[in-house]
Design goal:
alpha/beta
Length: about 625
Amino acid sequence: MLPRGRPRALGAAALLLLLLLLGFLLFGGDLGCERREPGGRAGAPGCFPGPLMPRVPPDGRLRRAAALDGDPGAGPGDHNRSDCGPQPPPPPKCEPQVSWIPNKHYSGLYGLMKLVLPSALPAELARVIVLDTDVTFASDISELWALFAHFSDTQAIGLVENQSDWYLGNLWKNHRPWPALGRGFNTGVILLRLDRLRQAGWEQMWRLTARRELLSLPATSLADQDIFNAVIKEHPGLVQRLPCVWNVQLSDHTLAERCYSEASDLKVIHWNSPKKLRVKNKHVEFFRNFYLTFLEYDGNLLRRELFVCPSQPPPGAEQLQQALAQLDEEDPCFEFRQQQLTVHRVHVTFLPHEPPPPRPHDVTLVAQLSMDRTWPTMWCTVRGPYTPSTSFATWPWPRPSRLTSSSVTLTSCLPILSTTTSGRPGPASTAAPPVVVPTRRIRASIEQLGLGSRRKAALVVPAFETLRYRFSFPHSKVELLALLDAGTLYTFRYHEWPRGHAPTDYARWREAQAPYRVQWAANYEPYVVVPRDCPRYDPRFVGFGWNKVAHIVELDAQEYELLVLPEAFTIHLPHAPSLDISRFRSSPTYRDCLQALKDEFHQDLSRHHGAAALKYLPALQQPQSPARG
């Protein structure tokens, strides 16, 4: 009979999403191969002593294996935290340690990298779970971690027996596998006692074994697995046999039915055939549905209290859960209200970057953009730090490395990529990336105006647009004015929503030699340069409409001066309308919800600023822009 084998949504959702991430964020050749000085204690089996830390390569390339560890050196505040300070230089490469081994496996060089983990990972790290990227979890990973407690004093490697006759050598004529203990072991799921392997001289052990076997065998067929098995054959006391349910192997010659026909519950499914989901197996439809169910898990489940391991909830977590629980799912605006309370997972610096040395009055361009608006050829026009951010659902997971692999421009110019993920996509603010030049003149204006912590000012960057997809970007105000007079450029939204930028006073800007002050007006939504301690965007305005307008209203309410910069400018490039703009145009409910949010915004404004907020009331009652997007 088939096992129950259902993914346990409430007890294992965090694990499932974590393993999905591990399929893309994997350790590899950039791990440090030099041992570090010990500076912490080893974690105890059972609950993880620290947060689960995926070992992520700076170059974002796909690797065959992933490492998870409970790193005692990582504090609870280390998650979802951006470290914008200078980064240490990259550690030496590990590839040379295994590149001498001929390997016929499709994973190539990186299929051998598990062999170097004891020397590559920090010396203070005692235990680690190592996973292939083609596994699907159906259990809480802490149950797997707890199996460390069953190791004897000499055992250092936990493995499930290989579920095929590969190492018996009888699959076909003249089949010569590497030596193994009985059927051998599969290395798709490994528990490693790194401390014991180091003490046993693991590096010398596997190197000597591999060199000896390669005298009679031409290459490895199953990458690291062949060498692990050859070492275990010679040193059987190293291995702890794990229950078969922790690595149900669906290879081309699988005998896994012997395991799952008797098991009461599955723990890990391993798609270890090169065909992956297309493997031929009489029960493959069951396992394929199992995997597809796994993909449908909502990443928001990660925010719920699912584990029995004691942990201190972050500040405000209880209040946030109460607020979410009080939302009415029948409310037409439920999606908006849920999004403004949702705290998304944030992943910073997917791509390698070296922050430039700080300079006085430095200006960082911060742009939120969707994955279809990453215009690599334009990003290098930015003269200064640039922090783009994009949002996407947990699945399918876009690989940022693909953005750079096809673009020399982006590879050489992009300093940092910050991404925000959610479980399922709701309304999301998406804006075309504005391109601002030159920031050195913005810095000069900040210095000239004497803007410091005592003077509250928002520097307005005049906005223009072009309808041309192929466009040569102007590098000075003189060049821009020439394009404006030739009809190649227009003032932003002049023909659809002029009130959005009219207070900038473009006629005055043409002749301006110094910054000049303008007054707030209804629906004014300029692009601004502001200090980092300025009021933040209001989180209730997700999707299309009123995010920039509300921010400018708040700045004006807090008596920020609006000063137009005479030399800087931004140009909007054409792009397809966003999903939320289409929804705004077509859905009366969407527009009604936006109006309700505007009313709530003014109520909050009145509570904070009293009678001074009355000046903004007419603006909230005006119709919204018929924007293109």
